[in-house]
Write a structure and sequence with these properties.
This protein is mainly α. The protein is built from four helices and no strands. The longest helix is centred in the middle third of the chain and has 25 residues. It is elongated and about 55 Å long.
Length: about 80
């Protein structure tokens, strides 16, 4: 008897192997988009805010706790 993980692997392996040309192209586009979202955009747009302002985990934790308890007020 095969393990559950092996059966899940075979399910997806057979499904992707039997995809049509169009389906394989769509998965390629999805993978490229995910790479752009998680690799490229993270590097250029999402800097390490806490790491650049605080040195220890305690300081980072205190800052986050303060922001959760006393959020910045809007000036309306």
């Amino acid at each position: 008897m095969r393990s559950i993980f092996h059966r899940i692997w075979l399910f997806y392996y057979e499904g992707f192997r039997n995809l049509s040309w169009w389906g394989k192209q769509m998965w390629l586009i999805i993978i490229i988009k995910l790479f752009i979202i998680f690799a490229i955009l993270k590097v250029f747009f999402f800097h390490d805010f806490l790491g650049s302002r605080f040195e220890t985990e305690t300081e980072k934790g205190q800052y986050v706790m303060e922001q959760l308890i006393n959020p910045p007020q809007k000036n309306d």
